[in-house]
């Protein structure tokens, strides 16, 4: 049944009220400068975000402007029953001084009486935690100069109606949440355990209600331990114990209970561990086996009730919401595991389809996996890259879940299939994290060929990070794991490039020449073109330029699009021409390469070309052009997180322009 509390006396102000001053200033201005007649202000926001405290603070600030006082109603429970709404109206009429014998019995008569009694008055009617528009309609005062103030437990109030203004209580920031916690447990205690305090506000999602609940637990913990915040943080962190510290149903239970059944199905999906805190209509549809357009409507319902946050075409899921979803999910574990499996399959199909578009000629997929085709999911490579970029966080979480579940082959597969994307976009943190799991997964499944491929890929990541010793070690490990000639050749290629970048030119020539020999034994035209190209990097200009001509001809003869590799050949041809002081010809090649890499969004390659063009401009004493090119390179390196390369370019720029 509905529980309702009505009182002509407004609750006291919350002494720990924080961080919503901008909202309050706007709300006060709106109410006091609004048109004559009744007004409606709706305060909405996520569960536990501080809507009630904000409403109470607002009424205390404007109450003196409403001569007939205020009515306060606090709602919880089932508000949909007609008898419940009638009971609320009886409370309201009693509070307004109507004698009991004059309060009607019929619902329609109750509403008419309430509107008549409140007409021509200047009241604040504060409805806290409404879950039904019928509550709002029933308690809307009669014509006058009153304010109907509504805080919503779920999205119910029509905000497009005349005279209705919506204000959203945003989550506290971390600093404000720490002040709230300090107000509960004491600033000295928060200062003494600052790291634990920060962890607690994060584990509480910076929600005032959660902080209030946890704060009382900290004060109790202080009676038995000298480090109550650290003790509480440990208990909150452990999902098996957090219920003893924080009842998430107190925070989210009302909002969940007000959802439609389809939206509840969606809500239970939020508790899956393999989505990483981001879901989309297509991913949830794959889990539920429902049409995507229907799922979109259910997700909108969750977003309207502030249980998830809309971001473009996806939705963010707070950790507390995910935990609550798991808490209230009473289904058998096998059902949840089946949903996790469907979500992993969703990611796998799209990762495979993206790889088909991004790197169709890489040999490792054919070598390692029997199912070489992903169902067509994307129109082109650009759309595939956009999807992969948006799903980075999800894929990492899904890989961690798959690893913990012992699905070694899937983790290895994703390491291989995602490498072209990570390589081009230089998402090296993603690559390294995934490969730590993947290499262990390959060992666990005794798949030495796969382990070798992952060490090969890891070597290139270390190479891009300019960790040349680590790169050489990874390539050497790959060579020792298998006698597969394609893998060994690629590992010698990487080893030679690492040696060249480290300044060991003689060893680089040995490794890259050996790679070329293996490529000719394999007798694959594309591999030969690549091997000749890489060997040219380590050779003197007179030897390198004919090799680059051979490589250019080899790529040009292939039936697939090799535009980017042809641009790389031009880049190195420009470098070798510059070594021979053929500056004008070098600049032509470099500019052509830069044009292609800009169109193809090859950011790293753009930065490398700009650096060489800057050096050439410096040799010509064109310091303005040199500085401009260096600035381009520095910006790109910094954006990619390649701070070492950015600093090197910055130092060279400063040296030239002194």
TrEMBL record:
State the Gene Ontology terms under molecular function.
Answer: ADP binding
Q: Which InterPro entries match?
A: P-loop_NTPase, TPR-like_helical_dom_sf, TPR_rpt
Name of the featured protein: NB-ARC domain-containing protein
> Which species?
Nocardia bovistercoris
């Amino acid at each position: 049944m509905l529980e309702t509390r009505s009182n002509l006396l407004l609750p006291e102000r919350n002494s720990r009220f924080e961080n919503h001053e901008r909202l309050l200033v706007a709300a006060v201005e709106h109410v006091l400068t609004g048109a004559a007649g009744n007004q409606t202000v709706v305060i909405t926001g996520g569960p536990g975000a501080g809507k009630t405290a904000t409403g109470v603070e607002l009424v205390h600030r404007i109450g003196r402007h409403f001569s007939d006082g205020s009515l306060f109603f606090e709602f919880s429970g089932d508000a949909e029953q007609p008898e419940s709404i009638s009971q609320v109206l009886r409370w309201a009429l009693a509070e307004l001084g109507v004698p009991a014998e004059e309060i009607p019995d019929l619902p329609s008569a109750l509403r008419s009486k309430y509107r008549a009694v409140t007409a021509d008055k200047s009241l604040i009617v504060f409805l806290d935690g409404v879950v039904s528009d019928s509550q709002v309609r029933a308690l809307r005062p009669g014509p006058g100069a009153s304010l109907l103030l509504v805080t919503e437990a779920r999205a119910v109030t029509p905000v497009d109606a005349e005279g209705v203004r919506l204000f959203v209580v945003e989550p506290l920031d971390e600093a404000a949440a720490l002040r709230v916690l300090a107000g509960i447990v004491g600033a000295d205690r928060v200062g003494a355990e600052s790291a634990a305090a920060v962890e607690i506000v994060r584990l509480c999602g910076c929600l005032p209600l959660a902080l209030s609940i946890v704060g009382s637990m900290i004060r109790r913990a202080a009676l038995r331990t000298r480090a109550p915040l650290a003790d509480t943080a440990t208990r909150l962190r452990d999902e098996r114990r957090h219920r003893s510290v924080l009842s998430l149903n107190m925070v989210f239970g009302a909002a969940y209970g007000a959802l439609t059944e389809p939206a509840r199905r969606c809500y239970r999906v939020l508790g899956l561990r393999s989505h990483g805190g981001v879901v989309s209509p297509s991913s949830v549809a794959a889990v539920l086996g429902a049409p995507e357009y229907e799922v979109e409507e259910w997700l909108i319902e969750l977003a309207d009730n502030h249980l998830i946050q809309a971001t473009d075409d996806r939705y963010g899921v707070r950790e507390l919401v995910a935990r609550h979803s798991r808490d209230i999910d009473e289904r058998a574990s096998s059902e949840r595991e089946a949903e996790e499996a469907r979500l992993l399959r969703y990611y796998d199909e799209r990762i495979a389809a993206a790889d088909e578009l991004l790197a169709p000629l890489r040999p490792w997929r054919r070598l390692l996996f029997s199912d070489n085709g992903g169902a067509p999911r994307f129109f082109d490579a650009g759309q595939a890259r956009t999807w992969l970029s948006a799903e980075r966080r999800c894929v990492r979480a899904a890989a961690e879940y798959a690893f913990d579940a012992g699905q070694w082959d899937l983790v290895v597969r994703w390491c291989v299939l995602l490498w072209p994307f990570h390589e081009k976009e230089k998402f090296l943190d993603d690559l390294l994290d995934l490969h730590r799991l993947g290499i262990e997964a390959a060992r666990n499944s005794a798949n030495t060929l796969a382990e070798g491929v992952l060490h090969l890929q890891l070597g290139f990541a270390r190479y891009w990070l300019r960790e040349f010793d680590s790169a050489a070690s990874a390539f050497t490990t790959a060579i020792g794991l298998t006698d597969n000639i394609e893998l060994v050749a690629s590992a010698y290629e990487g080893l030679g490039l690492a040696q060249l970048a480290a300044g060991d030119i003689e060893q680089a020539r040995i490794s890259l020449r050996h790679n070329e020999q293996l490529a000719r034994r394999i007798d694959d035209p594309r591999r030969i073109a690549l091997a000749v190209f890489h060997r040219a990097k380590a050779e003197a200009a007179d030897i390198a330029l004919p090799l680059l001509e051979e490589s250019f001809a080899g790529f040009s003869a292939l039936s697939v699009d090799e535009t980017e590799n042809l641009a790389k050949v031009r880049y190195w041809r420009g470098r070798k021409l510059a070594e021979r002081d053929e500056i004008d010809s070098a600049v032509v090649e470099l500019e052509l390469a830069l044009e292609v890499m800009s169109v193809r969004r090859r950011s790293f390659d753009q930065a490398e070309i700009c650096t060489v063009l800057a050096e050439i401009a410096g040799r010509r004493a064109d310091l303005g052009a040199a500085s401009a090119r260096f600035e381009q390179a520095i910006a790109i390196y910094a954006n990619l997180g390649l701070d070492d390369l950015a600093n090197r370019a910055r130092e060279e720029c400063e040296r030239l322009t002194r």
